[in-house]
Amino acid sequence: MVAFAPFFVDSFDYDMHKKTNLPQKICMRCGRPFSWRKKWEKHWDEVKYCSERCRRNKDKQ
Ligand SMILES: [Zn+2]
């Protein structure tokens, strides 16, 4: 049975579900995905950047 062990089957999906049952967004600045954080719970809809750094950098351009 070892030969049929599904080493690779859905392991990616499994990790996704296990680690990220939180909402995610893509940072408007660096393009990286980031997850919901407690500090954003009141204005998550308005969050566009993954970090304070990205948020500040937008002002430079
Ligand atoms: Zn960013």
Describe the structure.
Helices cover 25% and strands 10% of the residues. It is an alpha+beta fold. It has a domain at 22-61. Strands 1-2 form a two-stranded antiparallel sheet. A hairpin with a 6-residue loop joins strand 1 and strand 2 (33-35). The longest helix has 9 residues, at 11-19. The termini are far apart. The mean pLDDT is 78. The structure holds zinc ion (ZN). Zinc ion (ZN) binds next to loops.
List the helices and strands and how they pair.
Elements: H1 11-19, E1 24-26, E2 33-35, H2 52-57
Antiparallel strand pairs: 1-2
Bound molecules: zinc ion.
Helix content: 10-25%
Report strand order across the widest sheet.
Answer: 1-2
Separation of the first and last Cα atoms: 58 Å
Bound molecules: zinc ion
The pLDDT mean sits at 78
Tell me the structural class.
alpha+beta
The largest β sheet comes out as: 2 strands, antiparallel
Assign an overall shape.
globular
Number of strands: 2
Radius of gyration: 17 Å
Individual helix count: 2
Sequence stretches where pLDDT stays below 50 over 5 or more residues: none
Instruction: Give the helices and strands as they follow along the chain.
Output: HEEH
What amount of the residues lies in strands? 5-15%
Write a brief structural summary.
This protein has 61 residues and is α+β, with helices and mostly antiparallel strands.
Key phrases:
single chain, 61 residues, alpha+beta, two-stranded antiparallel ribbon, 2 strands, 25% helix, globular, binds zinc ion
